[in-house]
Amino acid sequence: MEQSEKESIRSATEEVSREFKTLVNSQDLDSLKQLQHLILGRLQDSNAVLSHFNEYSEHCFAEVSSDLSRNTRLLKSMKSDLDYIFQKLRSLKAKILATYPDAFPDVSTIEALDRRPDLEMPQ
Predict the structure, then answer these.
(1) What residue ranges of the chain have pLDDT lower than 50?
(2) Is 97 inside any structural domain?
(3) Hey, is 96 helix, strand or coil?
(4) Predicted local distance difference test score (pLDDT) of residue 21
């Protein structure tokens, strides 16, 4: 590009920028800037609160996680123990039924034998 073209482009851009400045009100720009600072302050406050909450949550989780894992292991152990007990009960019941077929009454016999009031039903 030639020097004269560069100067004409420069003068045109300066003219456009001057015209653009006349389109925008400086008071509006100042109010926008104040609003942006206000929003920035609020976002920084929110960020600080969230950071504090995250630290607190991490601390609480660290305190509870060992108890949670210990209780989880205990529940799994209890479940396996109960499964073993019920398996043994089923096998004992099957052996008793094989030896003594009339040892466990059927549903109709149980209803005839059980004359206790049903406490769950309102009277």
Answers:
(1) none
(2) no
(3) helix
(4) 78
Whether residue 108 lies inside any domain: the answer is no
pLDDT at position 56 is 97
Task: For residue 62, give its domain range.
Answer: 3-81
The per-residue pLDDT for range 69-104, each reduced to its tens digit, is 999 999 999 999 999 999 999 999 899 988 888 777
Report residue 100: phi and psi, to 5°: -125, 90
Q: Please tell me the pTM assigned to this model.
A: 0.46
Which residue shows structure tokens 């929003």?
Answer: 39
Contacts for 61-70 with beta carbons within 8 Å, 24 or more apart? Answer: none
Number of domains in the chain: 1
Read off φ and ψ for residue 117, nearest 5 degrees: -70, 145
Cβ-proximal residues to 96 (8 Å cutoff; 6+ apart), any chain: 103, 104
Distance CA 78, CA 85 (A): 10
Q: Which residues lie below 8 Å from residue 105, measured CB to CB, with a gap of 6+? A: 113
